[in-house]
Design brief:
alpha/beta, Rossmann fold, 9-stranded mixed β-sheet
Length: 280
Amino acid sequence: MTIAVCVKWSTPPSGGDERFAGISFADRAALEIALSIGEARHETVRVVTVTSSSSADRSLRDAVACGAAEAVRVSPDGSDTTGASPDSSLIAATLADAVVDCSLVLCGDYSADRGSGSVPAFLAARLGVDQALGLVSVSPQGSTIEAVRRLDGARREVLRVAGRAVLSVEGSAARLRRASLRSVLASENHPIDVRERTIAEHAWAQPESVVPFRPRARVLPAPPGLSALDRVRVLTDAGASPARGETIELAPDRAAARIVEALRDWGYLPPVEQESPSRS
């Protein structure tokens, strides 16, 4: 089987910062993790990118020098994704054709041009597999993958990934190994599999018009007051005294009953219906 690594090669705009050229550190981390998993499972690694610029071949050959067996560049017909890139869903659909036969797909969670980072999610949906994102650690455990996912509040979540999946890793997850001089020289003659595709052919079915949901406006009575200032004060509740709460210490059962009673008083719960006395 083959493990795929999807990377995004980007160039800065004219006069832009050269630090944002090439592939991101997150993509490099994804490549290193794929190489490690491939060595543990005895599987080959395929690196894939979508761009019509042949300058990206340099980054693909660098990946081959590090240990990748295949390098694929999907060239969109008549467009260049290094500038105004197509929609993320279309990029993912194009990538899916190149990785559909792979057992595992790894991606970086951000690109060098700081894109939306939504391609891995669209790719997982296109392939019909699970996705694990925000990963800070990935390691093979036999037939499964153990991954550590970053959560809010400095928390972590440990995942076990079985079967095919798309893994989106952060740049700190791994550091790409340094290729040997012999591998670098050998990669200069490595063939790049260039595949011509028309991104428009992979367009997802979208409804004709999509508008955000907006609830109906509530009709409220006009505020009382003879002057505009009086009406503004009523609307903003500027003249009202601040509400004060009360602290009550009760047993758990009485506290629960008190909460239910307050909710009924405030109108969140319906009033208790008078029950008719039971007949003896």
